[in-house]
Amino acid sequence: MVIGKFLGIVVLLLSLIISFLIIKKIVKAKNKFIRIVFSVLIFLIITAVMSSLFVSSVNFICKFDTAESAFRFNHSEEIVDIVDGKSSCMVIYKKNKNTMSVYYLYKSDANYKIPHSFSSRTVKNILNTNIGLSVDRVIQTGDHYIHGLAILNESNDYISNNKNDSFGKFILVSNMNNVKTIFIYDYIDNYETDDYYLIINDEKINIKEYHRE
User: How far is CA 128 from CA 98, 132, 148, 210, 213, in A?
Assistant: First the structure.
């Protein structure tokens, strides 16, 4: 078991024990529903506090020199690629044979840091018949990343962006019945001001202004 997951289980068990002791001592309501609500709230608060302290302690004690070592603290999956932003990076990895996922890490000049439970927020979803993309902002930074799937015909398999740089940004997931499914990922520099776009199936997709017709 990955050390981070093992320690996460320990933190959860400690949260349960502490919550039980607090609930037993202070939750005295006669109404069963009120007791359950208060008990759940106390458990959630204790778990959130314990998790935050756990992550902060790990980042204080452990010095991760590379994104790979920080990722390996909580994950054992195969890393496909790592995309660097200014204050963070996106790790693209295989959840299983046909499923890709992303994981965000914080970084400084000296090292990388593991994130808290909610490290990113989706600011844009782009959906139509052939694509499903999300734009995420890493919390506490100005970094934005795009990732998702696009379906291409064999006769039209070119994808590009406004930087004309597709190298390392697209991964073939499957090729069945002459249809290619590509996992797309990229860092969007200066999301608020840049005119970032993708060209997929000869369609120019302006990320900020895109809406489904």
Answer: 21, 7, 12, 11, 9
